[in-house]
Amino acid sequence: MHGRQTTKGLGVRRKTAFALIGVAGLFLVSPTAAASASGVVLGDPQTQGGGTAVNPGDVYGVADFEVHAPPGGSVSTALTGLMEGLIAKEYGNNQGSYLLTIELQRNGQTLVQKPLISITYSNKQFLFITTSSQSATSTIYNGTLLNTDSLDGSNNDVDVLLKSYYKANSNFDLSLFDTLNDVSASFGIASKLDAVGVTSSLLGSIQKVLQQSLQSSDETQQLFQYRMSFAQVGQVDPSRIRLLVLPITYSYQSGSRWYTGQLNLQVRTWSVSSKFRFDPASGKFVSPSASVILNNATVSQTSPTMSIVDYLQKSGDENVRSFLTTIEGNTAYSGDDIYSKCTELLGAFHKYLGNRDSLALLWATMNEYRVGFKKSNGGACVTGRQADFDNLGLPTAELTAYLTGK
Question: What is the Cα–Cα distance from 122 to 97, expressed in whole angstroms?
C-alpha cells in the first residue's frame, strides 16, 4: 500500500457504523456512529459569509486557523484522542508514525501545510507525541495560514483540507514545517511571484524536501475539504464563505474503557486594504509619508529584506532598472516619454502591491527622488494621475509645483 492516497473521507471502510452524506459537494460523516465504535466523526460545517464587494487588485488576503477544545478541556488531549480514534478506525491500529495537518490548496496546488500533531504508535500505545512550534501556543493551537498578494478572480478562493499521513518505518520531521514557515512567512502565493528569481532557492529546496517526505508516506487520507474566499472581488455573492467552523467528535477504546471527546477546527479568511496606513472608511491614506511608504514597501523574499524600489533597481526589468538608476542618481532621463516610463514603473510595483498601494509607492518614489524627476521633466507623472492621487489622499500640490516650476 506504499504511496496510496485515499480521498473518500472518514467512515468509508466501516459503512455499518458511519453513513456518508454530501455537504457542499463534499462527503462528510453523519454523526450517527454507535457509541462503541472507534472513529472520528465530522459534523456539519458551520459557515458564515460577509463583507462588501471590492475591486480586483485592491485588497490582500489573510487566512488563519484555531483548534478549540470544550471549555476547561485541553487541545493537546483532544487532538491525541482524535488521533486514537483515527488510528483505530482508518488505519487498523497499525504501528508507525502518524501526522495530522491542515492545508490550503488552489487548483490542486498546495499553498501551505501546518502540522497539528504527530504521533508514533506501537503496541497500541503512543510512544511519542510531538507538535510543531508553529502549531502550538499554550492551550490553543492556532496560527496564520497565508498572507496573499493582491486579490483578483484568479487567487481569491482556497480549499481548506484536513489530512492525515502514515509511515510504517520512519518518523515525520516537523522541523521542516517550522523552517519552511520561517523562510516563507510573508512570501504570499508562490505562483504569483515574478519570474526574476524572487522565489529563493532555499524556499524551493525546503518545499521539495517536505513534499518528498509527505509523498513517501505509506498512506494518506484526505479527511475534509471546503472552499473559502478571502473577499468579495467584484459583485460576487455576499454569502461567500469567510468563516468555517468544523465540529469533530472522536471515540476510542483503551483497555476495557471507552473514551469520547470533541473539538472544533475554525478557519477564517478576510482581506486587508493596504500594507500602509489606510482608512477603508474614507478610502484615503492616513498622513502619508514618502519615507514611511518606501520603508514599508519591501520584497521580503530577499535576504536581507529590500525595498521594492531598490530591488527593482538591482533585479527588475532592464528598462525599469535603467530608469530607476537614472532617477536615483539625480540625473536626467533622456527620453521624451517620461509618462510612459512612470506607467512602466507603476506596472512593476503592481507585481508586489495592490492597486492603491502601487499608486502610493509611485507617489512616494517621486517625492523621494524629486530631483531626478525634475531634471527629467517628470511633472506629467503627477498631473497625468492627479485624480487618482487626490482620491487616495496623496498630496501633490507641493510636488507638482516643484516638478513643473509653477
Answer: 9
Residues contacting 69, CB < 8 A, separation 6+: 75, 77, 78, 139, 263
pLDDT in tens, 288-309: 999 999 999 987 655 567 889 9
CA 71 to each of CA 21, 77, 139, 265: distance values in angstroms, whole numbers, following the listed order: 29, 13, 11, 14
Q: What are the φ and ψ backbone dihedral angles of 333, each rounded to 5 degrees?
A: -70, 130
Parallel, antiparallel, or unpaired for β 284-285 and 278-279? Answer: antiparallel
Residues 198-237: tens digit of each pLDDT: 444 555 666 676 777 777 788 989 999 999 999 999 877 7
Rounded to a whole number, what is the distance in angstroms from the first to the last CA of the chain? 78
Asked if residue 28 lies in contact with residue 47, where contact means CB atoms within 8 angstroms, the answer is: no
| C-alpha dihedral sign at 347, 300, 392, 271 | positive
Q: Are the C-beta atoms of 258 and 36 separated by less than 8 Å?
A: yes
Q: What is the 3-state secondary structure (H, E, C) of 273-314?
A: CCCCCEECCCCEECCCCHHHHHHHCEECCCCCCEEHHHHHHH
Q: What is the pTM of this model?
A: 0.81
Instruction: Please list, in sequence order, all residues whose beta carbon lies within 8 angstroms of the beta carbon of residue 154, skipping any fewer than 6 positions away.
Output: none
Separation of alpha carbons 389 and 176, rounded Å: 44
β-bridge partners, 118: 99, 130
Strand partners, 146: 63
Amino acid at 160: V
> Residue 396's CB: how many other CB atoms inside 10 A?
18
Alpha carbon 329 to its chain's center = 38
Report domain extents, the chain: 4-272, 278-404
